[in-house]
Amino acid sequence: MSYSGALNPASEDYESRPHYYIGQHDSDRCEVLDDDQYNQVLNSGFNFVTAPITNQHFFRRVVDQHKEFLKERQEWNDRLAPAQRTNPSLPVPIVPTLTDEDTSLYPSHHIGSFITYASPWIDLCSTDPYISGVSRQVLNMEVAYANFCGARTIVIPGPRQDESGRGVAQFARAIQEALLQVTRANLIIHLPMYREPLLEEKCETLSDIFDGSCMDADPKKEIDIFTSWDTWHTIRSVCEYSSRLFLALRIPRRVPEKNLQERWFSEPLHFLTIGQSVFQSNRAGSPTLTKHHQDLINRYMRLKNAPWIILNDVGPNAEDLGAARAIKAIEYPSLAEASKALQERKPKSGLNEYVSYMKDLERQQPPYTAMETPALTSFQDWLQSPLQPLADNLESATYEVFEGDPVKYDQYEAAIKEAMAEWKILKKPSALGTESEPYNPELVCAVAGAGRGPLVTRVLRAAQATNTKIQLWAVEKNQNAFVYLLNKNKREWDGQVTLVKTDMRGWGGPVPRGSSTPCKVDILVTELLGSFGDNELSPECLDGIQNHLFQPSGMSIPHSYTAHLSPISTPRLFADIASRESDPHAFEIPYVVRLFQLDFNAQKVPNHPRFQQAWEFVHPVGVNRADEFAAEYGFGRKYVTPGGGAMYGSNGTNEHNARRCHLTFVCPTRGVTHGLAGYFESTLYESQLEGGGEGKRVEISILPDQIDRKSRDMISWFPIFFPLKKPLYFPQDAELEVSMWRQTDDTKVWYEWLIEVYAWVGPQTRIKVGASEMHSSKKVACLM
């Protein structure tokens, strides 16, 4: 088959897509496939197969033993006194250890390619304590034996009903115990996306055999599509978000609403299982999936650790796999004998039709976008501590990563060009102007925190594009980066830039050509923004340099920035942080992370958007006490206030940069929150033409609902994540109230955050049903 260039890996136009790793599961399979059968399944297009841990012999042995126990118990009832019959210390059934007749699974060189399945006939949720006890023993023996054989993945059928809190708790407790039985294998709980009426898997369990009380779901009962997720949440919570506990999600015939899809998307998916009944037949009689199913699978396959796909009961079945064995049974078959065997057994050759369709679906996926390069994908949900650019000197490689984002610098250049163009139009007073002629076409520009100089280059390009004459200063405290700037000024900028090595807060200001006294700056350009806008101390840095801006027309780029929050569910990040036992402050660090595998808790409703503004900073600040103090006493004298009641007894010199917010988020569906996602937006330049004129606002944003409109494909900043020490559950139609503070003691800056849960119990009444503890990042604060 030939492919177009976009699908041909050898073509220069090849577009990369997620890869499907497809496995085969036969629910009637009772024995592990032998080598011939295994190869036949692989030859039909599958990448792996499932293997039962135990066989029918073990099942019959357990059933027979339980029958004997029930018979023995009846004998006790006949001969014991009534008071003794209910004694809870009477003997209970004990399942004998496995024998070689109970399993066909053994250690082998290809055991790692088997996905082992625990017995589906056990019932850990049974109300009969003897049945649930036997089931627990069977599970422990099976997972221990599979682990011994070298299996690394063990799938366990999940509870068949969600209504019984007692049953689900029993199941969760059994899984917690099973995790202690295995040292290296992962346990995968197989659950449906939601309970489809009359479409549940049919499998006879011990409860069906001995109790007969298993009830089918009422098809007329209203469906609560979140009950299956509730069950999963109980299991993983009891198991404390174990890093070896994963999920196999059964895809339903009818795809549910988007919010449930996103809920499962945020969970630790290991497998997507698709049964034969989910497929439909097209006009040619071949299997196909609906567009909704295709979109769901395509969405899940975008994960960094994409789930594998298991096709259930789509063949080849036991009869198909027997064809090769029938021929092989005759040591030297004649052509006639071989032909007869093939005709009788009719083995299927070539690709399995379901696999063939999935391979077509794989090729039809949208290709990876510019935001899905291997490098960016590797950053999915990878926790990073925020930078401390004031306290630390960055390495060249770090600068290089930031400089690799053309979108940010294009927006900065557009803002600078707008500022220069409007300066001419408005003929604003400038730093090099005089009392008689305030406007001077030559502007004084400064780039503070120049790094390796990308913004310096953009200022020069903007000046050339607008035909603006400028004098340009670049200020940088990193002595290593300063050496790079010196070389770049000679090599690329032709000495046009005056370089100053100092902390911007200690800079004495620009001294224009032909003068010996400092002057002011017309346009000040900085790139101090962090993932939350102010988390890398942009306000504190600009406070120390804004005194050099020419008043009243001097401008700062960026002009303003806002911080935004939204509560999220992100089990993967919570489990990652919880595993960092050596760090006592792990849950009080605001992490920079490319949030991907998450579910937003809140929905957009009137007056309560999904993403809400926490606070804003605007530059320059019209009134600055430190500047007034310096004007009166000079810069050689340290600014202090008469106060002493600020944070930790400080005198409050940075109190004006403290912030606080209280936000209310509406959550229509129940769920769990693991923390707060933080974002920022910035107005780099706001047009000063009356009525907007021909000018425009130049902005950048990392808000999920704004980034495509304001700064599409910008990668310089990932969101920030404020975690909770304990997951916070909330009911349906709850409100999450978020309180956050930006705190300072004049030497450092940190954040404090708290989430409270409220539920409405009447038209005018709501009650508090939960709250997190107060979290504080003071121990890892940003040093000023």
Task: Assign a percent range to the helix content.
Answer: 25-40%
- Largest sheet properties: 8 strands, parallel, barrel
> What is the mean predicted local confidence, pLDDT?
89
Estimate what percentage of residues fall within beta strands: 15-25%
Unreliable parts: none
Identify the strand order in the major beta sheet: 1-2-3-4-5-6-7-10
Which radius of gyration do the C-alpha atoms yield? Answer: 34 Å
Broad structural category? alpha/beta
Distinct helical segment count: 21
- Measured distance between first and last alpha carbons: 63 Å
Overall geometry comes to: elongated
Total DSSP E strands: 28
How would you describe this structure to a colleague?
This is Protein arginine N-methyltransferase. Residues 45-363 form the PRMT5 TIM barrel domain. Residues 376-557 form the PRMT5 arginine-N-methyltransferase domain. The chain has 784 residues and is of the alpha/beta class. The strands form 5 sheets. An 8-stranded parallel beta barrel has the order 1-2-3-4-5-6-7-10, surrounded by 4 helices. α4 runs parallel beside α5. The radius of gyration is 34 Å and the shape is elongated. The two termini are 63 Å apart.
